[in-house]
Amino acid sequence: xxxxxxxxxxTIFILGACIISFLKVIAHDYPQxxxxxxxxxxxxxxxLRWFEIIPIAGYFIxxxxxxxxxxxxxxxxxxxxxxxxxxxxxxxYLGDYAYLPLFCGLVLLGFxxxxxxxxxxxxxxxxxxxxxxxPLHISNAILTYLILLLISRKYTFGxxxxxxxxxLSLILGLMTTLWILTLACLLCIMTYLxxxxxxxxxxxxxxxxxxxxxxxxxxxx
Length: 221
Description:
mainly alpha; single chain
């Protein structure tokens, strides 16, 4: 019975990682989604073999390189799949099913921003079920939105970033959102130390920070 329980947990974890991988494909192809297309290398276009598209494991099986063109596969992909699978498992384990739409919507927003530098407003529809299933912090969301909107007049701050932070404040509360924002900024700083570029697409860092903060808060409760 115990072995069956752990097998179920493992299955849920893999399912979560697969969902992250699937959302990544949607974000890459949206709005021209082709359900018949097969996964391929982003560099040389080679069709990937079945073991190369296994979430997380596929990266290590291929040593993080395309077997054809030898280009390096970004390590963020398996890392996000791992965090996604772990968060998905924790949501199911704790019974926080109401947060699943929020989680999926944030992941799709993060990948879209990472690929194109902007987000499609239609993506927010995915998050809507969470709004009806959890208590909302409306005043916190309005305050967050207005303050960030004022800050954006002087400093570079994308409207999509403001909207995502306002949504997080609406659902998770102001204090949790501040922790997420702080961690996202720290992740940006760490990235800057290794890759000194002048600007960042911030929503992917917000998504990762949300997953990490949720894990920490859940483990402490």
